[in-house]
């Protein structure tokens, strides 16, 4: 849903989301830099920034939960 929101904002600003743009924008390591390179209105930039922050937080929590689920099974491996 967050990625769809970001794509909608980019589309509203006349930016086609290519795989390269997606890979950089959705990456926590390169996302802010990629966002600065886009020609967005101030409101659109705030919207994308908020969605990215949430997306990255969800990914972080997902990995944490995944680790906690797999941890009890390690002795059985």
Briefly summarize what is shown.
It contains 4 helices and no strands.
Molecular structure report:
This protein has 77 residues and is mainly alpha-helical. It has one domain. The chain has 4 helices and no strands. It has helices spanning 2-12, 19-25, 31-37, 42-70. Helix 1 (2-12) packs antiparallel against helix 4 (42-70). The mean pLDDT is 92.
Based on Cα principal axes, name the global outline.
Answer: elongated
Strand content: under 5%
Rounded Rg = 16 Å
Could you estimate the helical fraction of the residues in percent? Answer: over 70%
- Are there runs of 5+ residues with pLDDT below 50, and where? none
Largest sheet: none
Total count of helical runs of at least 4 residues: 4
Which sequence of SSEs, written as H and E, runs from N to C? Answer: HHHH
**Cα end-to-end separation:** 35 Å
Taking all residues together, what is the mean pLDDT?
92
The total number of structural domains is 1
- In total, how many beta strands? 0
> Pairing-aware structural class of the strands and helices?
mainly alpha
């Amino acid at each position: 849903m967050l990625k769809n929101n970001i794509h909608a904002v980019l589309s509203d600003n006349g930016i086609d989301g290519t795989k390269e743009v997606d890979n950089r924008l959705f990456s926590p390591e390169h996302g802010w830099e990629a966002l600065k390179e886009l020609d967005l209105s101030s409101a659109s930039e705030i919207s994308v920034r908020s969605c990215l922050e949430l997306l990255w937080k969800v990914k972080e929590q997902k990995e944490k939960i995944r680790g906690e689920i797999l941890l009890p099974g390690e002795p059985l491996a």
